[in-house]
Amino acid sequence: MAFGSFENGGSSQPMAEINTTPLVDVMLVLLVIFIITAPLFHEAVPIDLPQVDATRLDDPPQIVSVAIDAAGEVFVDGLAIARSDLAGRLAAIGAAGGKPELHLRADRGTRYDRVTEVLADAQRAGLVRIAFVTEPAR
Question: Is pLDDT at 10 greater than 80 in this prediction?
Fold first, then answer.
């Protein structure tokens, strides 16, 4: 017991022991309850689901690659395009349907105003998903 005995000369100090038997009893009861109820959680109602061939909703987006070199020349999907034709080309891509992604790669030496012109043309064409492609640091 956790009480002091009368045999040790009347010392009134309590014993510094914790009785863990009730704790172990409660834990064993809980373990038995979980072992019994766990298989009940995995039972499901058998349902015969219909088989349908459908396309996935998460179709990958169309990617349009636009590159600007150091001289300011613009390449759309690897083909050089004149400055006056860029807006029309991007408008045709935007009108084709879906939500295409524009991946923009610009040379380090490209002037900032040239990049903003391309971004403005893309915005006017309705291309709002724009990603800036970079290379990892070495």
Answer: no
